[in-house]
């Protein structure tokens, strides 16, 4: 039976063009069904314009959608918005995952309301993969919970370990707690209170890590609160863009450097790909009873295809059962 992914077609800044193009590409590339949720007339018109085989792509009407500026009050008034309709398709069993490039806070709100949390879990969190020395590392939370308690971070670490094992193939993930010093006792009150809990409850915990250890590949899972994680991920993206842009300008500044750039083009392409957020596509909202993936509002078609690919990978890796088993085994953090 083909996997089916629901895509919020009205989530991105350039909606619905990236979503429509990605749906057509992903359905063929991955051999899946994609349900586009949004304004039916507009989506049908855009699909026809592309003049492609529409096998594997279906449109479900949702007359309302959310803006990035919408808060809970505005969102609640839009009772048939794309998130509500799309998540409803997953809850009813018509699909196995929901993907959106829309409002992150509202994805968390409706995901929690419609799907509920895995029994025993206190808070869901967003996670992503970072390029580090020797491969990739999981970073969480990256924005779902700006304020956290120590028990939140313990469960984030437990879920991050599952994600690392199932999605990245790391047999025994090393977990680190982001702090401003390696020694126990360093960091904010949250970090100080979390350290002994991780040491006691999370296998593979290696202690505090600073930024240099994170990017040096010292851990497979890096745990922090959503405020810090969000600052880290946005700073990484900005620095990566600055470095690549500056490097390109320097390489194009003279005939000699242009020649060197041509010779090194394959290496530069690999580095660019490694640092490109569109290659990741989306961040899973871990802890819900169903799979929800949230991408950048500025996602293009390439990023949306990657977002759908991440959802397909999660289904194949049985990520959701793995998370449920881990939380059930570890029990609710006290």
Task: Supply the key terms.
334 residues, alpha/beta, Isopropylmalate Dehydrogenase, 2 domains, 11 strands, 50% helix
**SS content category:** alpha/beta
Please state how the strands of the largest beta sheet are arranged side by side. 3-2-1-4-11-10-5-6-9-7-8
- In the CATH scheme, the class of the largest domain would be Alpha Beta
Question: What is the CATH third-level topology name of the largest domain?
Answer: Isopropylmalate Dehydrogenase
Q: CATH superfamily of the largest domain, called what?
A: Isopropylmalate Dehydrogenase
Question: How would you characterize this protein structure?
Answer:
There is one protein chain. The protein is of the alpha/beta class. It folds into 2 domains: 1-121 and 287-321, Isopropylmalate Dehydrogenase, CATH 3.40.718.10; 122-278, Isopropylmalate Dehydrogenase, CATH 3.40.718.10. It has 14 helices and 11 strands. It has helices at 17-29, 40-50, 72-77, 82-91, 104-115, 150-168, 189-201, 211-215, 226-251, 255-263, 265-275, 277-280, 301-316, 319-330; strands at residues 4-8, 33-38, 57-61, 97-100, 125-132, 135-140, 175-178, 205-209, 221-223, 283-286, 291-294. Helix 4 runs parallel beside helix 5 (104-115), helix 6 (150-168) packs across helix 7 (189-201) and helix 6 (150-168) runs antiparallel to helix 14. The longest helix is centred in the C-terminal third of the chain and has 26 residues, at 226-251. The two termini are 41 Å apart. The mean pLDDT is 89.
């Amino acid at each position: 039976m083909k996997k089916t992914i629901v895509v919020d077609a009205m989530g991105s800044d350039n909606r619905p063009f990236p979503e429509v193009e990605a749906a057509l590409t992903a359905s063929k590339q991955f051999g899946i069904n994609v349900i586009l949720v949004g304004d039916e007339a507009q989506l049908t018109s855009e699909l026809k314009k592309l003049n492609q085989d529409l096998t594997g792509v279906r449109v479900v009407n949702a007359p309302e959608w959310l803006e990035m500026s919408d808060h809970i009050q505005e969102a609640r008034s839009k009772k048939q918005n794309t998130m509500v309709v799309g998540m409803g398709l997953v809850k009813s069993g018509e699909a196995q995952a929901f993907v959106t490039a829309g409002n992150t806070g509202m994805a968390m709100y409706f995901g929690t309301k419609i799907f509920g949390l895995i029994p025993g879990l206190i808070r869901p969190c967003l996670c992503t993969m970072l390029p580090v020395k020797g491969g990739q590392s999981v970073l969480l939370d990256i924005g779902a919970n700006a304020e956290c308690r120590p028990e939140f971070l313990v469960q984030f670490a437990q879920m991050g370990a599952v994600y690392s094992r199932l999605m990245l193939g790391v047999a025994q993930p090393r977990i680190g707690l982001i702090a401003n010093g390696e020694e126990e006792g360093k960091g904010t009150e949250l970090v100080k209170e979390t350290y002994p809990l991780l040491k006691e409850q999370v296998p593979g915990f290696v202690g505090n890590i600073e930024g240099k250890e994170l990017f040096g590949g010292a851990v497979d899972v890096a745990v922090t609160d959503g405020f810090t994680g969000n600052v880290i991920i946005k700073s990484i993206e900005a620095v990566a863009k600055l470095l690549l842009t500056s490097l390109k300008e320097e390489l194009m500044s003279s005939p000699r450097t242009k020649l060197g750039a041509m010779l090194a083009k394959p290496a530069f392409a690999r580095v660019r790909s490694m640092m490109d957020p569109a290659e990741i596509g989306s961040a899973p909202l871990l802890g819900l009873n169903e799979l929800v993936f949230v991408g950048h509002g500025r996602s293009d078609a390439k990023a949306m295809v990657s977002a759908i690919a991440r959802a397909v990978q999660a289904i194949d890796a049985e990520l959701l059962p793995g998370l449920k088993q881990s939380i059930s085994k570890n029990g609710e953090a006290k």
